[in-house]
Design goal:
This is YmaF family protein. It comes from Clostridium mobile. It holds the Pfam family YmaF. With about 90 residues, this protein is an all-beta fold. Helices cover about 0% and strands about 40% of the residues. It has one domain. It is built from no helices and 10 strands. The strands form 5 sheets. A two-stranded antiparallel sheet has the order 1-4. It is elongated. The two termini are about 15 Å apart.
């Protein structure tokens, strides 16, 4: 069965006077079956630090065209006395 991945990007929540940006590509998962994707990465360096994150997307949200996308939501690692949250949607595949 063919596999696919999705791109994603966004900005963290605003905490302690700043945000970070993040983006990447999910891991590959089988197409045509119920699935989730793993996401992991590191935010941009801002305010003299960066945060890492690792999470899974929600299940596929199917569209009428036969394509789908996923939601995600997680918190980044605790660094410099605080955390941020990331959330959003992957690209449509």
């Amino acid at each position: 069965m063919p596999k696919h991945s999705h791109s994603y990007s966004g900005a963290t929540t605003y905490n302690q006077g700043h945000i970070h940006h993040y983006g990447g590509v999910t891991d590959k998962a089988e197409s045509g079956v119920p699935h989730n994707h793993c996401m992991k990465g590191v935010t941009t360096f801002n305010d003299d630090h960066e945060h890492s994150y690792e999470t899974k997307t929600g299940p596929a949200i199917n569209l009428a065209c036969g394509c789908h996308y996923h939601c995600f939501e997680t918190k980044v690692t605790f660094v410099d006395g605080h955390i941020h949250y990331i959330s959003g949607y992957t690209s449509v595949d």
